[in-house]
Amino acid sequence: MIKLNYSKSMVKEEEISSFKEFVKSAHYKLHLKSGLGNDYVGWVDYPIEVSKKELERIKSVSEKIVSDSDALVVIGIGGSYLGARATIEALSHSFYNSLSNDQRKTPEIYYAGNNISGKYLHDLIDVLETKNFSINVISKSGTTTEPAIAFRTLKKLLEKKYGKENAKKRIYATTDSSKGALKNLSDKEGYETFVIPDDVGGRYSVLTPVGLLPIAVSGIDITKLLEGAISAREEYMNENIDENICYQYAAIRNILYNRGKSTEIMVNYEPSLHYLGEWWKQLFGESEGKDNKGIFPAAVDFSTDLHSMGQYIQDGRRNLMETVIKVNDTGLDMSISEDEANLDGLNYLCSKTMNDVNEKAFEGTLLAHYDGNVPNVIIELEKLDVFTFGKLLYFFEKACGISGYLLGVNPFNQPGVEAYKKNMFALLNKPGYEELGEILRKKL
Ligand SMILES: O=P(O)(O)OC[C@H]1O[C@](O)(CO)[C@@H](O)[C@@H]1O
């Protein structure tokens, strides 16, 4: 169960209701596929459309990886890996990779191709050299530099370990259905492939094979995850904003943006939700940051970051709003033990658990930031379980599509990302970019 509490958002019910017609129009744009970017809204129905056969194939491949690998390397960047990482980290042991094989029973999961650091890849190779591993390379375009470099390198390592032919049986490619460098290579080499649907963009792809395969390898029940998404699809289908918390969230952030709250900070109180914040940042940043508009999405981990960013949030420039993910039942807790000497003066906490203290940190921070003129929206999760997490992912995807339409942008393209790539190619002397390269070198 997910609840939205906007009592500390500084937005009144009537203001939200006043968005009724705008939201209705956004709703129909999305569902009738009549809005900007309408060829990329396949994610809306994917959870009910994905075939049983495809899910079974994902599960059986994941079982093969579990049976023959100590580690899976997920190669991808942005939407091609963040959703899987967010889900795996949210729902697994905090020290998943460090557990013994007996405790974990599923392969360690490593991520590559999400940066261009030689040190990172070098260090990863050190780790992989002693392990049996498989690769899930994920790239819709197949031409993204970061994952392409990592794949080239790690494929070589696989080949060195197992020989060319056996290495192919440890490579799983998730890519476009018909075009692109990775698709061509997969066809040529005979890799087992999974399709990123043509009408689903990277940042909306976590609930497709992009996220589902690595998530399944980590032991998480992908059927339950999709059930959560399907439940969200039904629950947030209501065009009436008064009865749809997903649309209320989309409206509140636009109301606050129009009042000058141009930065939204996603807050969590559970370290395992760190990557949910990373995924959410891409989802909203890439969807809304265009045409010189858009809320800047930031994320913090509390209480950790209260000791670093807390000062700014309380007292800095007042352009901030916060969206807090509050987990009511984390499943595990620790009591605070009594100490006879009580030199640290903490014995007053002995009747409490760490979750009790975390809850008071949340309440105290909420009131302090609200008093400091930072509107707070609370997204309350009854539990942090697979079903609820699937529901939450879909909640944000839909809120993002609706919010983008409310803002008047195309929430499904990302033209701005190309600028750095073009410059980087030119500076690297990629054939075809010579002229731009000369211009840029003069500017440096
Ligand atoms: O799956 P691909 O094509 O490698 O793209 C990865 C990521 O790069 C972008 O295209 C641009 O950064 C994202 O939208 C996407 O999630």
TrEMBL record:
Catalysed reactions listed for this entry: alpha-D-glucose 6-phosphate = beta-D-fructose 6-phosphate
Stored PROSITE patterns: P_GLUCOSE_ISOMERASE_1, P_GLUCOSE_ISOMERASE_2, P_GLUCOSE_ISOMERASE_3
Statement: the UniProt record of this protein carries the keyword Isomerase: yes
UniProt-annotated location(s): Cytoplasm
Family annotation (InterPro entries): G6P_Isomerase, Phosphoglucose_isomerase_CS, SIS_dom_sf, SIS_PGI_1, SIS_PGI_2
This protein's record includes keyword Cell cycle: no
Top class in the EC scheme: isomerase
Cited NCBIfam families: PRK14097.1 (NF010697)
Family: Belongs to the GPI family.
Role, per record: Catalyzes the reversible isomerization of glucose-6-phosphate to fructose-6-phosphate.
Name used for this protein in its record: Glucose-6-phosphate isomerase
Classification lineage: Bacteria, Bacillati, Bacillota, Clostridia, Helicovermis
Gene name, Swiss-Prot/TrEMBL: pgi
